Amino acid sequence: MKVALLILLLISIGIIKSFDINSIEDSHWESDEGFEYHKCWKNLTGYYTEFALSSYNTMFPTPYGVIPVSFYEGGVVTTDIKGKQMYVHYGVVAQNLTTWGQFYAYGKNQTQYVVSNTSCIAMKLQFPFPEKLPKFKKVGSTKIGQVDVDVWIVKGKQQCNVTKSCILIQKDSCIPMSANFGNKDKSNLGFSLLNYYRYENTPHYDKFQLPSQCWGIKPKDNEDDKQNKNKAVNSLFVNEVEQEEHFGDNQQAPSMRIAKNNPYYQQPPQLKNVKNNKHHKQQETQDPDLIKTTTKTSTKTTSYSRAIDSPSQHHSNVPKSINFHHLF
């Protein structure tokens, strides 16, 4: 990846004393002035991180239109940028549904796989692996606790029309600490917060090994995919999804990827009355990745356990995908 010449280093960079996505002036997003390829990721081959993402009423461009979504997601993601492969272990809570599973994506054969319980579904790759990360612009600095961080903003091809986003990077390092997203329309407020845990600037290659239950499974043809995608949309976020327009942007909400990538999802009968079930018990999953997330990251333990532990809620084959345009 090329690093843009720092011609515009003379731009004023202030201190953001009380940080919030709306404390950054809108003018920073309104032109390409000052945006550059971040030096930290000039030779980045990939990354590994655990993450927790909370969203309230945030507008996201999706294959089904720009819609406000509220959800929680936690898990593990690792990406090999040069090799164009990705692994995600996820747990998502949205629309009173809780789902978890593993997602595998391979750019070389343009295929993605979703593993839930012991089943595997193969689909054609739903997003392109970008050749390089987007450009960033430094707009200030602040603190997370007592840790000094620089504030960098980023804008996607279409996302900039509806939301604003920034990432907080530990000062004098290349470690992302947190990312913030907010609706551009201040009359319809919405915010998302993404935290990174145990970030490493190298992929965990062992995670890309496709499990045996996916061997020999091939994607469905286009017509089946289209029919099943519509079924998925009707079964999840049915009250929110109103359009079928494809915005062509990689900055998609994780919860929207649930509907997009899940051709076989049907709401389990036991979930229909989940609001009225006040006595369902919780038990901890035995999945190694999720145990690692809940036991080692104290700040995520409570929320993530809620996202995955209800036995009445984790039988759906809901897939998930994240790409590094979304994370950064």
Question: Could you give a quick summary of the protein structure above?
Answer:
This protein has helices at 222-235, 254-261, 288-296, 301-308, 324-327, and strands at 14-15, 46-62, 65-80, 85-94, 97-106, 111-116, 119-124, 136-144, 147-154, 163-170, 176-183, 191-200.
Can you describe this structure?
The protein has 328 residues and is mainly beta. The protein has a domain of 194 residues. A hairpin with a 2-residue loop joins strand 8 and strand 9. The radius of gyration is 19 Å and the shape is globular.
Structural features:
328 residues; 12-stranded mixed beta sheet; 12 strands; 34% strand; disordered N terminus; disordered C terminus; signal; DDB_G0292248
Secondary structure topology:
Elements lengths: L13 E2 L30 E17 L2 E16 L4 E10 L2 E10 L4 E6 L2 E6 L11 E9 L2 E8 L8 E8 L5 E8 L7 E10 L21 H14 L18 H8 L26 H9 L4 H8 L15 H4 L1
Parallel strand pairs: 1-8
Antiparallel strand pairs: 2-3, 2-12, 3-4, 4-5, 5-6, 6-7, 8-9, 9-10, 10-11, 11-12
Low confidence ranges: 1-18, 228-328
Mean pLDDT: 68
Beta-strand content:
25-35%
Tally of individual helices: 5
Distance between the termini: 15 Å
Along the chain, the helix and strand elements come as EEEEEEEEEEEEHHHHH
Structural class based on helices, strands and sheet pairing:
mainly beta
Shape: globular
Region (Disordered): 261-328
Biased composition (Low complexity): 292-303
Pfam family, one: Ependymin_amoebozoa
Biased composition (Polar residues): 310-320
